[in-house]
UniProtKB/TrEMBL annotation:
The entry's keywords: Hydrolase, RNA-binding, tRNA-binding
Top-level EC class: hydrolase
Biased composition (Basic and acidic residues): 193-209
Family: Belongs to the PTH family.
E.C. numbers: 3.1.1.29
NCBIfam families xref list: pth
PROSITE patterns (alphabetical): PEPT_TRNA_HYDROL_1, PEPT_TRNA_HYDROL_2
Stretches the record annotates as Disordered: 187-209
GO MF annotation terms: peptidyl-tRNA hydrolase activity; tRNA binding
Name used for this protein in its record: peptidyl-tRNA hydrolase
Record-linked Pfam families: Pept_tRNA_hydro
UniProt xrefs under PANTHER family: PEPTIDYL-TRNA HYDROLASE (PTHR17224)
């Protein structure tokens, strides 16, 4: 069985830790920690890589060490080196269209204005699995989007991410175990229930109850 690559997108450097744009790094770091694995520098591929035997096969966890806008530059040779199948590659990245704690899965779509995804599409084509990790929309419409995604997550947003870590990791496992289509259905159902719960909570708040 060919290994499956899970690529987290982000910017290298301590100054970017905790920013919205580094949500992809955050999740693959959590996965490496959960698996008791360790990152190894692969300088010729400009990436950090952890190999893990889990979920019925081998996972190749990847953090590019280029900046976000060049995320795909060295990825194809790295995936080929590990004999990963491009269409089964999972790319984890931040998405301002969803609140923290929410996920949407997609594939074969446009970049949605995300420069890291844009470079991935340029490098390996659009038919990879996108694990879109919500980081919340900007609160002030006048704010530049780059300033928003390079800004640090607020404490309550961090709590929302941390509180849903098991959900995120379970979703990754479901993609690996049962395929993207099956995982999409599960995530869509979860999001539907959450939206209904959020709406009910809002209505109760509006009623003053």
């Amino acid at each position: 069985v060919p290994p499956i690559a899970i690529v987290g997108l982000g910017n290298p450097g301590s100054e970017y830790v905790g920013t919205r744009h580094n949500a992809g790094f955050w999740l693959v770091d959590k996965l490496v920690h959960r698996m008791n694995a360790a990152w190894k520098d692969k300088s010729r591929f400009h990436a950090r890589v952890a190999l893990v035997s889990a979920w019925g096969g081998t996972l190749v966890l990847i953090k590019p060490t280029t900046f976000m806008n060049c995320s795909g530059e060295y990825l194809k040779p790295l995936l080929n080196y590990h004999k990963c199948i491009l269409v089964e590659t999972i790319v984890v990245h931040d998405d301002v269209a969803f609140p923290p704690g929410h996920v949407k899965l997609s594939r074969n779509r446009g970049d949605g204005g995300h420069n890291g995804v844009k470079d991935m599409i340029r490098a390996i084509g659009p038919n990879f699995i996108r694990f879109r990790l919500g980081v919340g929309a900007k609160q002030d419409f006048r704010m530049d989007l780059a300033d928003h995604v390079l800004g640090r997550l607020r404490p309550e947003e961090i709590r929302d991410l941390e509180g849903n870590l098991d959900f995120f990791l379970d979703t990754l496992r479901e993609i690996v175990d049962k395929g993207c289509a099956h995982a999409m259905n599960s995530v869509n159902q979860t999001n539907k229930v959450r939206s209904e719960t959020d709406e009910q909570t809002k209505l109760q708040g509006d009623d003053g109850s």
